[in-house]
């Protein structure tokens, strides 16, 4: 099985989510949890963007020892110098340079010709290489770039010293087969491509960030970038917990491993949600409140007989303590009895029948019956003579 590197950008791209503004302490807490989670690289921020970000990146670089800490920089000398100042205390510092390569970005945003973009990228990668051993270069908006131009610029920046080439789907525009094709094309058309690691970075505007990341891996990418809970610009980035669990659960199809400690998934997700204020929706894959909840009677019965009937991910795998049978109007006797047992209350068969009827009446006007409701019902039937 080949090893896929996980590059977490919760603290940089994730923090670019509208309304999210983490202070240094909060960033440090998340960084420590990311280290426990086992990500290979964490992008701590963009030091040239503000004094606060510089300080936070520096604090993280000085604290985190087991994960490579990286920082974002534009292809300008002052950004690279500032990033070095923030990162030089890190155990494994690396830099992430980016420059757009799509006609739309080069024409309207950069107002540069493709040749100028090529020269700037090459010059700044060599400059960064004087300080950093690991230099990642990203072709911003790669998925809307001309493939031949992309192949040429990649060859040149690898010659200049880039060790990682990242091909972002910056605006979440691509589809899995198209994105996969781009990686395949680079593998086949860039002569020195094997001297660098290929990385994918997907945004979720069309809801395909995770699928696109997996397609990239199938076509030669060995680094996946994303964020916890999929937070990030606009509709967010690829959700790392979804990518990691997909690779694990479908190892028959994806022969790759990651260094993630999946049992830390839920804790990491909860921490990021709490500190960013970006709470995950109930039906979010892997970490949502309902991810292991079964409401219909048939599903509940199946899960109680054998969890694999309706569960492809075990709660234990991702650090969720117990599975959560939600009791509602579709629930049957079997699930009800089990829940009562889980609450630690002993009732006779006769009283259980009465309690079940009371529960059914309650579900007529209450969608979800809580543990507190059940306690009340059970206490009432217990005291009934
Ligand atoms: O989405 C993107 O293109 C980025 C780059 C800075 C890598 O986040
Ligand atoms: Zn991005």
How helical, in percent, are the residues?
Answer: 40-55%
The ordered string of helix (H) and strand (E) elements is EEHEHEHEHHEHEHEHEHEHEHEHHH
SS content category: alpha/beta
What share of the residues does DSSP label as strand, in percent? 5-15%
Could you tell me the number of beta strands? 12
Counted by DSSP, the helix tally is 14
The overall pLDDT, averaged over residues, is: 94
Bound small molecules, which ones? Answer: 3-methyl-2-oxobutanoic acid, zinc ion
Distance between the termini: 64 Å
Shape: elongated
CA radius of gyration = 25 Å
**Major sheet:** 8 strands, parallel, barrel
Widest sheet, order of strands: 2-3-4-5-6-7-8-9
Low-confidence stretches: none
